[in-house]
Amino acid sequence: MAGQQWTTSALGGTLTSVPLSRKLRVAAQPIMVFRGFVDPQEDFGKNTGDQLTFKKVGNVANRGRVVSETETVPETNITFTSDTVTAAEYTNSIRYTFRVEQLAMLDIRSAIINALKDDMAITLDIAASLQFKATDLKYTPTGTATNKTYTLNTAGTATASTREFSVWDHKNILDAMKQTYKMPRYSGREYHAIHTTTTLRSLMDDSEWIEAAKYGQPQQLFDGEFGKLYGCRITEESNAMDGTLAGGLGEAIYFGKDVCIEITAYPEEIQADLAGDFGRDRGLRWVWYGGFKHTWDFSTESDARAVHVTATS
Q: Which pLDDT band, with edges at 50, 70 and 90, does 211 fall under?
């Protein structure tokens, strides 16, 4: 057929342009939870240097005991230790031109700001997680699904994993936290745990978890929620931990009260660069000046606040 045709550019296909949606779609972001569990230090801020020293008080050297009527009251002492947390400048930036801002139909500046905010949240959540994972206590599931064993190393090193995490491991860790290491609970009568999707899946597939959920909160089985088990509230994350360890294992962190502190010398902010080349060269950045630090080292202080479920690669 002769004449004008839409499918041929020279005959009519160039008489319109493809419409542009006014809505910008944004990339998916991971689940970030670690920073919500740190303890901000209000006695540190601007113009106070880049380090904060914090003191820790140990238990009495000798326990109290029964004394006779005429016996002298026994004496003991406590030991103080010190540690420091150091602030550093965390930042990232995106540059753009005067021309793209003036000619683009969509708001490039808002898109850059939103992307920088997401990057800041991800980066600082990972920075906080590193201090949770710095605990000396490393738990690794070993053995087989039918003959479970485990290692709990107290020197900051893990072993190779050979199976998935289970409710049996969950209980082992909490028993050790309560009885062996006497960790204070995070809130009230509960400990807290942060899990990768991998470990949560293996827990929810465990028949013992399914039976417990049936009698506790059966609706959680259908909603996909985890909630609380054996005196521990569980949260899922997908940002800072590895869910692809050997044997189908994923990382997890179990912790009690006062596990990690945070100092801030300069709070989170989006800043505009001083435009160069007569305003043609522009830029935005996010910035936070601060630091995180785990509070106790078991290897030197015989005290701990967290257990890291992990394995060697």
A: confident
